[in-house]
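Lecture 7 notes: from sequence to structure.
We start with the chain below.
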Amino acid sequence: MLALAEIADKWQSLRRNLDTVILGQDRVKDHVLTCFLAGGHALLEGVPGTAKTLLALAISRLMGCRFKRVQFTPDLMAADLLGANIFNQKTQQFEFRPGPIFADLLLADEINRTPPRTQAALLECMQEGAATVDGVRYRISPTFSVIATQNPVEFEGTYPLPEAQRDRFLMKIAIDYPAREDEARVIEAYAAGHRLHDEVVASLKQVMTRDELAESRQAVAGGVRVEAGIQRYILEIVAATRRHEAVQIGASPRASLALVESARARAALAGRDFVTPDDVKLLAEPVLTHRVMLSPEAEMEGVVLGDFIRRLCESVEVPR
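Predicted structure tokens for the same chain:
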């Protein structure tokens, strides 16, 4: 089993290598790595061309993961994702051909463009760690993680994820346009003839193995303390979402557990074996924004959910 100090070193090395591919977007990279170390799934929301696919590809190479990418479309069926039984003419028997779900890291590109039945098949695999095809249950990789993306600006012909299904994602991470200086560095690299997707990603060296990824997750779950005061702090933040007048649907108990898991992972990445209130505050927005629904009145008044969550955290007394 890896020690927490070894985990911090390995993940910091992974982050440094990731910085050579994804220029800027520090908040996004921190949240995604925290999500993976916690063993969760990430929902990335941003306009096209903001390096969502590149981020997933680079992480898979650095972690030594089996990577699959599926472009979700309106005609994508559940069998296209899970796999199917194919009749073998030579053996006169059906053989199971596994689909892309049988990977360590799956990029579900534009998840809101596929019908609910296919979305439900993916979300069931995320929750259960297994897929059922023709009545037979198949286990998926123990390190299985999903990065799902969705475009927030086009809604024609899309199938938005229901509230209950979005709850299966540990974090929803919003990706904005890069800072001007970071975009200038990207332009400079391409003007010099470099291609981040091809040259830089191909040159990445594996930083950890899949076994080390699994060990990291186990060590964090069992070795990072969440003191009673922090537990009460998390409970109060989540409870505040349920009683506020601007909220129509508050966060569920799963949100409380997600904050605990995420805060543990962030503490481990910082080289600590204990969670601080700052860990919880920094992660409250990506953990809670897809689990809280504002009332129609609040939306009409222009309340922004991310800002609302941050103000809510400030209103809760910090444990001493």
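Points to note: Residues 253-269 form the longest helix (17 residues). Residues 237 and 313 are 6 Å apart (CA to CA).
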